[in-house]
Design goal:
single chain, alpha/beta, TIM Barrel, six-stranded parallel beta sheet, 10 helices, about 40% helix, binds fe (ii) ion, Caps_polysacc_synth_CpsB/CapC, protein tyrosine phosphatase activity, protein phosphatase
């Protein structure tokens, strides 16, 4: 088995991931070349721009899997969603219009708005947890409020959330500040998995393999293996335990004076 990618935008024509089948096939080839064998395909859902109903995503995933097999691309895909945190999540859940990172509906990929951590975030997360769902906060390092106050992520880990860090963030594709914060999260044990979040856009290419290679080089093979084991546990709906610490303060020489 190759890498498991729990967050990518490969399906054609559903969101900003890929405009057409040809592009989706190229992305799938990129995924395979990057070392990915299994991917949860996660179009945006309820993010203010895209609504991708559960049944539509399942159908699109089946169709795309059939095409992948027909053209001989060895990638196994599963239907998922990247769900935007809002007051629409719980009603959508009650209407059975949500897809998860696993078949049993235990782990939800939850996206905060990019600019802030909404004041109602903890209430929605608590409501999800009451329903037996564990949110995986996707790319917290790309949220502006968390980027400027990274200690905030610890509050969500404390309340039982997991985290998905984006490989490109860790590699510096989105700039040094995001790379540094991602590295601090990893160093403190605050990352659960790396994922590609691949789109057919510039700067959103498949970099999961490179991200895992950097993880192994910087933090050692045990940490890289743990990230892969976590991805496997999540896609199987198995328990994942986090052993994390609060972030270490950044040391600044000038801070002494
Ligand atoms: Fe995404």
């Amino acid at each position: 088995m190759g890498l498991i990618d729990l967050h990518c935008h490969l399906l054609p024509g559903l969101d900003d991931g890929s405009p057409d089948l040809e592009t989706s096939l190229q992305l799938a080839r990129d995924a395979v070349n990057d070392g990915v064998s299994h991917a949860v395909v996660t179009p945006h859902h309820l993010n203010g721009r895209y609504v991708n109903h559960r049944a539509d995503v399942i159908k699109a995933t089946e169709d795309f899997q059939a095409t992948l097999e027909a053209v001989g691309i060895p990638l196994t895909i599963f239907a998922g969603q990247e769900v935007r945190l809002s007051d629409r999540v719980i009603p959508a859940l009650d209407a059975n219009d949500i897809l998860f990172a696993d078949a049993d509906g235990r782990y939800m990929l939850l996206e905060f708005p990019s600019s802030e951590v909404p004041h109602y975030a903890k209430n929605v997360i608590f409501s999800l947890q009451q329903r037996g769902i564990t949110p995986i906060i996707v790319h917290p390092e790309r949220n502006k409020e968390i980027l400027h106050k990274p200690e905030l992520l610890g509050d969500f880990l404390q309340s039982g959330c997991l985290t998905q860090l984006t490989a490109s963030s860790y590699l510096g594709t989105f700039g040094k500040e995001i790379e540094d914060v991602t590295t601090r999260f990893i160093a403190a044990g605050q990352g659960t998995i790396l994922a590609s979040d691949a789109h057919a856009l510039s700067h959103r290419e498949y970099e999961l393999g490179a991200g895992m290679a950097k993880l192994e080089k910087q933090f050692g093979p045990e940490v890289a293996s743990q990230y892969q084991a976590n991805a496997k546990a999540l896609i199987n709906g198995d328990l994942v335990q986090m052993h994390w610490q609060p972030l270490r303060k950044k040391r600044k020489f000038l801070g002494l004076f």
